[in-house]
Specification:
Elements (H helix, E strand, L loop, with lengths): L1 E3 L3 E2 L4 E3 L5 E7 L2 E8 L5 E6 L2 E7 L7 E7 L6 E8 L12 E3 L1 E5 L4
Antiparallel strand pairs: 1-4, 2-3, 3-10, 4-9, 5-8, 5-11, 6-7, 6-9
Length: 111
């Protein structure tokens, strides 16, 4: 996993509030799941797979330390790159625009 921009290590996850900060992972498989935590001060990320934007994902939750995951399936078998980039945007209810990454689950090719 590669992190660009200003990220902090909280032990069980990394987090940032810098617009443009990104986390990127190369993987082989047909699907991927981003794991993290929803918070009341979380923002919105832009998700790209193989250079194509596939989603904007809001990590906001109504409390603190709420389980969060986002999943994308149906990729062609083979090698892919997932990029998660902090947009700096947030919903009206969010207190800030933080983003966090705890890890990834991969769906191997052939499953």
């Amino acid at each position: 996993m590669k992190f660009t921009g200003a990220w902090q290590d909280a032990g069980r996850f990394r987090y940032s509030r810098e617009e443009g900060a990104a986390a990127e992972i190369a993987f082989e498989g047909t699907g991927v799941r981003w794991l993290g935590w929803a918070f009341d001060d979380a923002g919105i990320a832009e998700i790209a797979i193989d250079g194509k934007v596939v989603a904007r994902v809001d990590q906001f939750g109504p409390g603190r330390d709420l389980p969060f995951d986002w999943r994308h399936d149906g990729l062609a078998p083979g090698r892919h790159t997932l990029r998660i980039e902090l947009t700096g945007d947030r919903t009206a209810k969010a207190r800030d625009c933080f983003l966090n990454v705890a890890g990834f689950d991969l769906v191997p090719s052939g499953r």
